[in-house]
Amino acid sequence: MIFTHAACLAHEPGPGHPESPARLAAVLKALAAPAFAHLPRHAAPRATPAQLARVHEPGMIDAIHRAAPTGSTIRLDPDTAMSPGSLEAALRASGAVVAAVEAVNASSGSQARAFCAVRPPGHHATQGASMGFCLFNGVAVAAAHALAECGIERVAIVDFDVHHGNGTQDIFARDARVLYVSSHQSPLYPGTGAANEHGVGNLVNLPLAPGSGPASFRDAWERVGLPAIDAHAPQLILVSAGFDAHRLDPLANLDLGAEDLGWLTRELVQLADRHCEGRIVSTLEGGYSLTALEECTHAHAVALFC
Ligand SMILES: [Zn+2]
Questions:
Q1: pLDDT string in tens for the chain (306-residue length)
Q2: Which of 56, 124, 163, 246 is catalytic?
Q3: Residue 281 bridge partners (DSSP)
Q4: Cα–ligand 1 centroid distance for 123 (angstroms)
């Protein structure tokens, strides 16, 4: 299944901003390939106030609503901007992941896999603050929804975006029901995600030095990341699918190709089959090379759906 919404193209951080509408267009172009013609496509609903409030402080949610401009683009911080279309895009981006969780929870096997082609991204948004191009933390909203509403007791959130998902870690650092496993370049924005950040035993951080390539990426996941997911025995796997660990990405310096992210996706599908009756929901996070976004989306979706 694919969840998306045209509103996600109307979030305009401004000329020259790397988190551009063209990113989602590249992702949708990849998903238009004949290989994916069989997939059901759903319009993403808006996340509700109650869904957002499970992971974000009321003041933070209010601040985004109050900041939403009617005219020109405004900045929440040096990286994070809102245009008139941004609030609607952010509500649909989080709502997509929630709806995808509900849909896969009612399915099993190969029907229980979903990808959310949405923006803005979410994994840097903390309980109390939007940051790093992210307004609401969609993957966290969806994980909290699964725990509260879907009869799910253990979730794994897998984050292979090249940046550490500090927001997701912040939200679940004291919640042993949620395992958060992230590989990311270090040092790099936002500076969190050291290997010794363990939470309550539910955080697994796999920092990779600048220039790291397929061998160190696959080794970290094979030795540490994938076994941790296996041991957690999640009933649902959520994926923060950022495609900025690709070697073409202009904001980072890892040396991965689309085939490496496809490999990890296949490993995650196998874990979902083993523990989750197949249930896996992936959502777009970062990725700032349009060429890499298209290639990586294709590889990720082939691994999920073909
Ligand atoms: Zn990123």
A1: 999 999 999 999 999 999 999 999 999 999 999 999 999 999 999 999 999 999 999 999 999 999 999 999 999 999 999 999 999 999 999 999 999 999 999 998 889 999 999 999 999 999 999 999 999 999 999 999 999 999 999 999 999 999 999 999 999 999 999 999 999 999 999 999 999 999 999 999 999 999 999 999 999 999 999 999 999 999 999 999 999 999 999 999 999 999 999 999 999 999 999 999 999 999 999 999 999 999 999 999 999 999
A2: 124
A3: 114, 238
A4: 9
Among 203, 28, 196, 202, residue whose Cα is nearest residue 119: 28
Its pTM stands at 0.98
Measured in Å, residue 223 CA sits from the centre of ligand 1 at 23
Q: How far apart are CA 131 and CA 277, in angstroms?
A: 34
Confirm whether 124 is a catalytic residue.
Answer: yes
Ligand 1 centroid from CA 251, angstroms? 8
